[in-house]
Design goal:
Layout lengths: L1 E4 L5 H11 L9 H9 L5 H8 L15 H13 L3 E6 L3 H16 L3 E5 L12 H9 L4 E5 L6 H9 L3 E5 L13 E3 L15 H15 L11 H10 L6 H16 L3 H7 L9 H7 L1 H11 L2 H7 L4 H32 L9 E5 L7 H12 L3 E7 L2 E7 L6 H6 L7 E4 L3 E6 L4 H15 L8 E4 L1 E2 L7 H8 L13 E6 L1 E7 L5 E6 L2 E5 L6 H4 L4 E12 L2 E13 L2
Parallel strand pairs: 1-12, 2-3, 2-4, 4-5, 5-6, 7-8, 13-14, 17-19
Antiparallel strand pairs: 8-9, 9-11, 10-11, 14-18, 15-16, 16-17, 18-19
Helix pairs in contact: 1-2, 4-8, 5-8, 5-9, 5-14, 6-7, 8-9, 9-10, 9-12, 11-15, 13-15, 14-15, 15-16
């Protein structure tokens, strides 16, 4: 495991910010906090003030997004003339939260409105012919797609033939030619000047609703109760939590803590506490929402997220909990089979495996498990109707979307991001794609990208890691891409009381001075941990157990002191 120090800002900039933050001598701010802020592009006192307490007034004008004016005018016309509107979204967390947000908002505007989530197995990802036919059969004249649609050329052409307008709200990278939709809202459009390019699908849906509210003379403050959905989508879709996403996620997490909607209250089962953060919700809420679309149908997720009644939400949450239990068991089974398939492929630069019976709903998670085991670009296929469908996962620094694009002559379609993608191909294309992909990865993957790494921010002393330090670190929340949780380097320290814990004895527990520590999946490092002096990388967090709170270190890695 390589240890990489994150790039620090200029000392002059850090000194200036530190001086500004310490104007009040009674509220002394440590120098390391100024270092962390500058590393996150917060360089002035004013920027720090806005960073610590993000304001909804800092949100960008939604009408800066290309086609937003057209989209708002079309929706307002549909509302005025009582047209039937279909809110159409993907079956994952980003899609179902986006559909829930826009559908609920339109209902507050007394719209004739319904929602549609495609069946993962019968229809696949995105806008489908079946969905268009459903709209025609139900006299729908306007479809709003969320988290999909920017590549739905044939389906949107079909909708146009049937006299149905389509407004696309997407955040995936579009082709140079856009589909012939009435409006296409996507900040990644080449001709779009919207200043923030990292919105998730639910975020684009929120910007549409924000624009509709502005047209009514209202502000984003009236929409704050929807930001819990946006926050969950930001965390689940692993998009940047800097810039506008930081504002949305900050207020969304705050709303979950203070006013949880019935769905989140039911899913959390009162396990939430004041220290819960976006990362916690990403583990406790997002997989359950995803489980509906993976195992049964994404409409269960939307029904839960839009439930206003606590009893109804509890019943739906229990159903989704059962889906999640089944998902975990299926995922474990498929992962074990896949690992057996690739045990003799140690020489390969990439992992590409398939089996016709693997559950389509878990192949993405399985790809992540395989990637974590062998640490190389990974693609897992399963049979989907007459085709093979796959989920792809990459390693840090390697653009798997670009790698698949280099082999696109061997696939029907693909889409996604640098770290994750989806693929569909014919059976006769599988071997040629596998060979082409392996050859491309061998040629482009560097030796550094094949070695796992962990980044850290600063070297500190154990005496620096206090309750006050923890509270200051929490002000940097929410954590995620482009705003990572601070990781500290502690050199030549001694760990005591080291023991392996957990059902499989694969975690480490012990003490570093006065602070307890936990090291998840570091059980195999016990011998190193028990030596006289070690270097460790760790985060500082709070362990809450039976209403008791204890400051603790969470070890990310350790090695013999150097």
């Amino acid at each position: 495991m390589r240890w990489i120090e994150r790039q620090q800002g200029l000392k002059h900039t850090i000194d200036t910010l530190h001086e500004g933050l310490n104007k009040d001598p009674e509220k002394e701010v440590p120098y390391w906090l100024s270092q962390l802020l500058v590393a996150r592009n917060v360089e002035t006192y004013e920027q720090a003030r806005d960073y610590f307490v993000p304001s909804l007034e800092q949100l960008h004008d939604p009408f800066l997004m290309q086609d937003m004016e057209k989209a708002v005018e079309r929706i307002e016309s549909a509302l005025e003339h009582h047209e039937s509107i279909l809110v159409y979204g993907d079956y994952d967390v980003d899609g179902t939260t986006a559909v829930s947000l826009v559908y609920d908002y339109l209902n507050t505007r007394k719209a004739s409105c319904s929602y549609y989530i495609p069946d993962r197995y019968a229809e696949g990802y995105g806008l489908s012919e079946q969905g268009i036919n459903y709209a025609e059969d139900n006299a729908i004249t306007l479809i709003i797609t969320l988290d999909c649609g920017v590549k739905a050329y044939q389906e949107i052409a079909l909708a146009n033939e049937k006299g149905i307008d389509v407004i696309v709200c997407d955040h995936h990278l579009p082709e140079q030619e856009l589909p012939a939709a009435y409006a296409v809202l996507d900040p990644l459009r080449e001709d779009c000047d919207y200043p923030f390019k990292s919105l998730c699908g639910c975020g684009v849906g929120f910007k549409l609703v924000q624009a509709l509210e502005l047209r009514q003379g209202r502000t984003a403050e009236q929409l704050i109760h929807y930001l819990d959905l946006v926050a969950i989508a930001i965390g689940a879709d692993v998009v940047s939590v800097a810039g506008e996403n930081r504002i949305l996620a900050y207020h969304g997490v705050k709303h979950i803590k203070e006013h949880p909607r019935p769905a989140f209250e039911a899913l959390l089962q009162h396990k939430s506490d004041r220290h819960s953060n976006l990362t916690d919700y990403n583990f406790s809420i997002a997989p359950k929402i995803n489980a509906a679309g993976r195992i049964k149908h994404g409409e269960y997720a939307v029904a839960l997220l839009t439930a206003n009644d606590k009893a109804a939400a509890t019943e739906l949450a229990q159903e989704i909990e059962r889906f999640n239990t089944e998902r975990r068991a299926t995922e474990k089974e498929v992962t074990e089979e896949a690992l057996a398939f690739i045990a003799d492929q140690q020489h390969c630069a990439a992992t590409v495996v398939r089996a016709p019976h693997w559950h389509k709903g878990v192949i993405g998670i399985v790809a992540s498990r395989l990637q974590a085991t062998y640490y190389r670009p990974t693609i897992v296929f399963t049979q989907s109707g007459d085709h093979w469908a796959a989920s792809a996962r990459s390693v840090k620094g390697y653009d798997i979307h670009k790698a698949i694009d280099a082999c696109k002559e061997h696939v029907i379609q693909f889409g996604g991001h640098a770290f994750a993608a989806g693929i569909t191909l014919h059976d006769h294309q599988y071997e040629s794609f596998k060979s082409a992909f392996e050859a491309h990865v061998q040629h482009t993957l560097t030796s550094e990208q094949l070695e796992p790494s962990v980044s850290y921010d600063l070297e500190v002393s154990p005496k620096d890691l206090t309750l006050k330090a923890y509270r200051l670190i929490q002000r940097l929340q929410p954590f995620g891409p482009q705003n990572p949780e601070p990781v500290f380097l502690l050199r030549a320290v001694r760990l005591t009381g080291v023991q392996c814990v957990g059902a499989e004895k694969n975690h480490l527990r012990g003490q570093l001075g006065e602070l307890p520590f936990i090291g998840f999946k570091l059980g195999d490092r016990k011998e190193i941990a028990a030596t006289e002096k070690v270097d460790v990388l760790a985060t500082l967090n709070m362990n809450t157990f039976r209403d008791r709170e204890n400051l603790q270190l969470q070890l990310k890695d350790l090695r013999l002191a150097v």
